[in-house]
Automatic annotation (TrEMBL):
InterPro entries: Biofilm_reg_signaling, EAL_dom, EAL_sf, GGDEF_dom, Nucleotide_cyclase, Rev_trsase/Diguanyl_cyclase. It comes from the Bacteria. This is Diguanylate cyclase/phosphodiesterase. The lineage of its organism: Bacteria, Bacillati, Actinomycetota, Actinomycetes, Frankiales. Residues 379-511 form the GGDEF domain. Keywords: Membrane, Transmembrane, Transmembrane helix. The chain crosses the membrane at residues 12-30, 36-56, 68-89, 101-122, 143-166, 178-204, 211-232, 244-264, 285-307. Residues 519-777 form the EAL domain. SUPFAM superfamilies: EAL domain-like, Nucleotide cyclase. It holds the Pfam family EAL. It comes from Pseudofrankia inefficax (strain DSM 45817 / CECT 9037 / DDB 130130 / EuI1c).
Length: 787
């Protein structure tokens, strides 16, 4: 509560206390008739003040805070009218109690209805602090109706108990008018109903303003107290009430006024959890009261005492209220059961499905695979293992959000490509599995179609990105061992064999595929080999000549790592790069190549003064290269101009302009830079022409053999444009992948000075290999510059 609001409430409290003190003194000191008129007028003024105050504060409030103030304020208006009539009665007849007021019952019923509506609309929350977001209005309406019915049962049972034990004997003994007595009792019962509702709200709900509810309850209790005093006087044959009764009534109205002045809470109230015993008491309370009244009625019947009309009417009314409550409870229980079942289904779905793609996860896939194996005698099935190519590079270069989008797109394409009864699951990372439960006519054709669908370019960060996937296929029949893990392992072996064969490939499992070819094993072998463990193969460096295309003279060397695996034999450089990338060993492999190159140059195993190209993936620790390469060169006493770092794209589009500061640090250390794969789709560098600190660019292989592309003429036009831009920028261009003299001649005529490829062979440290066909000569001036 803010300080200003607390000050207003405190001021109103002091004024109210002074007001009550003054009228109390008047009630105790003035003559009875004058005192009755003064206290009655004071009560009427307090009643009008409540109507005005609650109307004003309710108009400024919103929602439930507005509703309860307006309703209670509206109830004060007929009460003020009745109080004014009573003052007029006192002025003409003195303090005697009126024998009969024709409109009293109807007026009191209206007042009680308004009070009850105001109490039930008081803003509260469930004990757990959790609202039913799906249908909050329905939940609130149901609770309020149940509260009103329970309050009615409790009040009716208490009334019946009071009638059987006290009130009925009094009425029979003094021969009172039963209708008048019931009318008076109805007043007390109405206030009991209000108080019961207040108890339910405060105990079984969480009021948003407990202080306001407490003041409201105290005010209604004061109103009930004055009514009870009036009833006691009437029941005992008295003819007038003391003026102090009006003081109690005025105090009650002032408490209600203060409740309306309590500031509306700005923040939520602390969460108060409902204990099980509290909830059980909440459910049993109305039945306990009804049971107690029923026991007394049963005892009365046993002793042969007749049930009068009042008892009969109250019992029938209570039974009807309980019946209505049970019907509503039954409907609520049905809704709760449906909600619990829906929640259970939702939890099961979440437990068995991948949250990113919505596909079944490994657990659900295993369940369906078990079922398919159990039915394989009657229904042969196929299992497909799918792994995206270069997915880690997408995450590294474009970010995890782009990687997530790629996974969602791939999942949608796989779902679209299979039959409704088949299962597409995400096993984790970029790995997917497909279970073709019913026998498929041609599962290999289906896998090729899926691979084609996946290869469709995907828009990531506003640019088309090529996607590929390697697939492994296992066809299961009655002879297949009933082991799901074995099937998944076989599919994984086939998939990894497809990766070795080339990205985007498909391999059908065959028994000769061994565990040595599995992804985890081969990655582990590479890690051990890079550590120098010859039992897992050796990593060596081969050198491919970079020649002048017009003369055929060697101008530089291209360092290419080669892994001799103890079981798989020679692992191709492209596959080695992929394995290192998947195993997180890329920079370890680059470091190994750099050390081998420095050693070969230092030991004069390489021809002088040819510089050596060493590929380094962008974004993989490139910022650490100046210091690392500088230390290596110093350790082997090798010139900084002997090494040219080739910036190889690791997937996606790399903005070299954004990395210019980091690249400039490398150039400042004396190391030259070259760009690899310029002009290609999968390895396109963004901003290569915007003055990054590079001297050399290496063309993508598509420019070497345009006839192998889908648009040869367009490819040649783009190649000429790239060569023209590079020439005007003073950049040296190296063509790659040259396989025959025709390609070399065409590139030379197009203006490309240097080239490399299988045509020129390769050699290891210590001399030229037999396959090396290039002549030796000093390196091209553009490459030798500043060496």
């Amino acid at each position: 509560m803010r300080t200003r609001d607390r000050s207003k409430l405190t001021t109103a409290s002091w004024i109210g206390a002074a007001y009550i003190l003054v009228i109390t003194i008047c009630a105790l000191t003035l003559p009875s008739r004058v005192a009755a008129m003064v206290t009655g007028s004071a009560s009427a003024v307090a009643c009008l003040a409540v109507a005005i105050s609650l109307g004003w504060t309710g108009w400024k409030a919103r929602g439930a805070d507005r509703r309860w103030r307006i309703l209670i304020g509206a109830a004060a208006i007929p009460t003020a009218v009745a109080t004014g009539w009573h003052i007029g009665w006192i002025s003409g007849h003195g303090t005697a109690i009126p024998a009969h007021v024709p409109w009293a019952a109807d007026g009191f019923l209206l007042i009680i209805v308004l009070y009850l509506a105001g109490v039930l609309t008081f803003p509260t929350d469930p004990l757990g602090g959790e609202k039913d977001a799906s249908s909050p209005r329905r939940e609130g309406f149901h609770w309020y109706v149940i509260t009103a019915l329970d309050s009615l049962v409790v009040v009716g049972a208490l009334f019946l108990l009071a009638w059987l034990t006290i009130l009925k004997p009094i009425a029979e003994m003094r021969h009172f008018d039963t209708a008048g007595l019931v009318s008076s009792l109805a007043s007390v019962a109405g206030y009991l109903l209000l108080l019961a509702s207040l108890v339910f709200l405060s105990v079984f709900r969480q009021p948003r303003s407990p202080f306001a509810l407490a003041l409201l309850g105290a005010g209604l209790s004061g109103m009930m107290a004055s009514t009870v005093i009036y009833f006691v006087v009437f029941a005992t044959g008295g003819h007038r009430t003391a003026p102090i009764v009006d003081v109690v009534s005025a105090l009650a109205w002032l408490l209600i006024l203060l409740a309306g002045l309590v500031p509306i809470p700005e923040s939520g109230t602390p969460v108060r959890r409902g204990r099980p015993r509290t909830l059980q008491l909440r459910a049993a309370l109305p039945y306990l009261a009804l049971g107690a009244a029923g026991v007394l009625v049963l005892i009365q019947l046993i002793v042969n005492s007749a049930i009068d009309s009042v008892e009969r009417s109250v019992l029938v009314g209570l039974l009807l209220v309980v019946l209505i409550r049970q019907v509503m409870t039954l409907g609520e229980n049905t809704r709760l059961l449906a909600s619990v079942e829906a929640s259970r289904q939702e939890l099961r779905y979440q437990a068995l499905h991948d949250p990113l793609t919505g596909l079944p996860n490994r657990t659900l896939f295993a369940e369906r695979l078990h079922r398919a194996l159990a039915l394989r005698d009657n229904r042969p099935f196929s299992l497909v293992y799918c792994d995206l190519d270069d997915f880690k590079r997408v995450n590294d270069t474009l970010g995890h959000a782009a990687g997530d989008e790629l996974l969602r797109t791939t999942a949608a394409r796989l779902r679209e490509g299979v039959r409704p009864g088949d299962t597409v699951a995400r096993l984790g990372g970029d790995e997917f599995a497909i279970l073709l439960e019913r026998e498929h006519r041609d599962p290999e054709a289906l896998c090729r179609r899926l691979a084609s669908m996946i290869r469709a370019p995907t828009t990531l960060k506003g640019q088309p990105h090529p996607v590929g996937a390697s697939l492994g296929l296992v066809v299961a029949d009655s002879s297949t061992p009933p082991e799901p893990d074995a099937l998944l392992r076989d599919a994984d072996l086939a998939m990894y064999a497809a990766k070795r064969q080339g990205k985007g490939g498909l391999i059908v499992f065959r028994p000769e595929l061994t565990t040595a070819e599995s992804a985890p094993q081969i990655r582990s072998d590479l890690e051990q080999a890079l550590r120098g463990d010859d039992r897992h193969g050796t990593v060596k460096v081969l050198y491919h000549p970079v020649v002048e295309l017009r003369t055929g003279h060697t101008s530089a060397l291209d360092a290419v790592p080669l892994w001799n695996h103890h079981q798989l034999g020679e692992v191709a450089p492209d596959l080695l790069d992929r394995i290192a990338d998947e195993a997180g060993l890329t920079m370890t492999l680059v470091g190994r190549v750099l050390r081998e190159v420095c050693r070969d140059v230092a030991e004069q195993g390489l021809p002088e003064p040819d510089p050596v190209f060493v590929r380094v993936p962008v974004g993989r620790g490139l910022d650490k290269q100046p210091a690392d390469v500088g230390r290596l060169l110093a350790d082997w006493s090798v010139s900084h101009r002997a090494i040219i770092l080739v910036l190889a794209n690791s997937g996606g589009v790399v903005d070299l302009t954004a990395a210019a500061r980091m690249l400039q640090r490398i150039v400042d250390s004396g190391i030259r830079l070259a760009l690899d794969g310029v002009g290609g789709m999968a390895s396109a560098f963004g901003g290569w022409h915007n003055n990054p600190p590079v001297e050399i660019i290496r063309l993508d292989r598509c420019f070497t053999d345009p006839d192998a592309t889908s648009a040869p003429t367009r490819t040649r036009i783009v190649r000429e444009a790239v060569l023209g831009v590079a020439s005007r920028l003073g950049l040296t261009v190296v063509a790659t992948g040259i396989r025959n003299p025709v390609q070399a001649r065409e590139l030379a005529e197009a203006g490309c000075p240097l080239g490399a490829g299988p045509l020129y062979g390769s050699f290891g440290p210590g001399g030229v290999a037999p396959t090396a066909a290039a002549d030796r000569s000093p390196c091209h001036p553009a490459v030798r510059r500043h060496a």
